[in-house]
Amino acid sequence: MIFFWAFVIGGLICVIGQIMFDVFKLTPAHTLCTFVVLGALLDAFGLYEPFIDFAGAGATVPITSFGNSLFHGAMNEAEKHGLVGVVTGMFEVTSAGISAAIIFGMIGALLFKPKG
């Protein structure tokens, strides 16, 4: 049942994004920012963790999880280090994913020749 809900919830998030493109004529940048902010807001109100518990990968794979991670990391470090922790906490929590994207993007660029 875990896989079913992950598929359904992840799919619904994608459908919402597609509706934002098609109906509201939002650009990919606007849609991306909206989902990141939505993930951060849901975490601020304590709603994203129960959402992850219910949907599993359906909630952790989409970009909303990035907003959740940014906010969660910032608040955890703010408790320890104050205002400086807000900035450093965001980087500490998300650095592995960002680093992986950069590294794998570089490897892909070296191994494959783009058509264009």
From TrEMBL:
| Pfam short name (any one) | SpoVAC_SpoVAEB
**Top-level taxon of origin:** Bacteria
Q: What keyword terms does UniProt attach to this protein?
A: Membrane, Transmembrane, Transmembrane helix
Q: Which InterPro entries match?
A: Spore_V_AE, SpoVA
Species: Bacillus timonensis
Record protein name field: Stage V sporulation protein AE
> Where are the annotated coiled coils located?
none
- TM stretches of this protein: 6-24, 31-48, 54-71, 83-112
